[in-house]
Amino acid sequence: VTFIFNEDIELLGDPFDSDYLDNFYHTNKNNPASDVEVNGNELTIWFEDSEMPVGRAYVNIEKNALQDLWGNKNAKITYVVDIKRDTTPPVLEKVEQDTEYSIELTFSKKLDDYTAEDIDNYTIRDENGKVIKDIIDDAVLNGNVVTIYFEEEIFGTFSIVVEDIEDLEGNVIARTTKSFTMTDRTAPNSPGNEFEAKIYKAGEKGQLLKVFFKEAMKTSGQYSVLDLEKYEIGSVNLADLDGTTIKITDGGTAVEIRVPSYEDVDDPRDDYLDIDPNDWLYIARVADISGNRTPTNYNRVRISESTAVEIEKVELTAKDTLVVTLKDRLSKFVSDDFEDAVSATGADVRVTRVRQSVNSAGKTVVTITLRGWDRTTVTGLKFKTDNTKSQNAYGDALEERWVTIEDKAPPTVLKVDYQNPTTIVITLSEAIDSGTAADNSRNGFSVNGGELERAEVNGTTITLIGTNFKETTDVSYNSIFGLADDEGNLLASFTRTDKLD
Fold first, then answer.
1. Cα gap 136→119, rounded to integer Å
2. Residue 94's pLDDT band (boundaries 50, 70, 90)?
3. What is the pTM of this model?
């Protein structure tokens, strides 16, 4: 509520001091202000912790809480304020890109954090209207703005469907769909996004230099990566070497430059350049397809020798799924290389399926389905490539080595056990990190059929304490509360609606 006086005023205390805020209250002294602010002759009082009642509210200002600019202090003030209930639902006003991984939703009013931060209330669709599943990682509310964080960077045209979100008065938004566009804002060859270069058949017949830009690049205009004049090794500009050719590859994220070596030319007097590993490649300013240019005019890249297709990471993403990401694209794929790589201590693990795909960076991703590994932890699970036959387009074989498997598998619900009218026990596939749970809290759980008091988290079990539970009680969990295992993998939202165990 804002009071307008007949002259400018000043506060006679610290608005951050709770004792001073006690001078401003509504109805009675049990409802003090949460904040006060003066702007000229206006005094605004907030009651965030104790809202004014609908109808007639009596707002009080104790004496000597204010003064005018001449030092005259106020007498006690009591003012009647007519409060009307807000029945207007919130409206989604705009959707804007925040980063490559996030967008900001601006609403017409402040929102209820429980509904605004529930990622199930948001759906992302691609430009064809198809739902993109599991793309939203988190939703964070700040007043009337919700920031949606994605699991990975996305580019292109999308739409977001918003529903079941409430304002502070409980008014529910109408189901709303708004489109938005995500563009690349990261400069090529910036920190963490550096160019790479590899030489194949160095000094031999068929010598080839490949430059990896990590993202799709411009292939025309001033900043085209297909302009040979932009490439130098030592004091040699590659455009000056007769017989040198360049082409775009890997979906626009790399170029292949064929540079004649001594072995490639018929006459030693012809142009040639034997490229050595560890030579420096200099690239003039280029740009990605979004128009982002390299930060500097010249980009220096150390040339490395290609010897094998490297494994970037191996991840357990579910109790029966391994995902292997390579640093290159395979042109010859031998599934046995991956099937034979999996073993385990204390378990008879077999591979039932091996599938390959290509990610947005143009690299091979191999998904392995397991049988006999029924855990969401990696202890005892092993991955070692040996005698590999898979190759990239340049004849490099898949590297042979032990790889530590990363735990990216979230905990799963094994069973929900009704014990008695006051207790339901949930058993998980692995322990929950106690630091992600709160004492004397429901911790994101709710029930339909009975009344839940609290959810006690202890290792692999979560005990629901309440009253009037039945075997038919529905148990639900909302992942917004962030229960996670020791590796930070979040327990997913779930609802058990069948008869409990």
1. 7
2. very high
3. 0.63
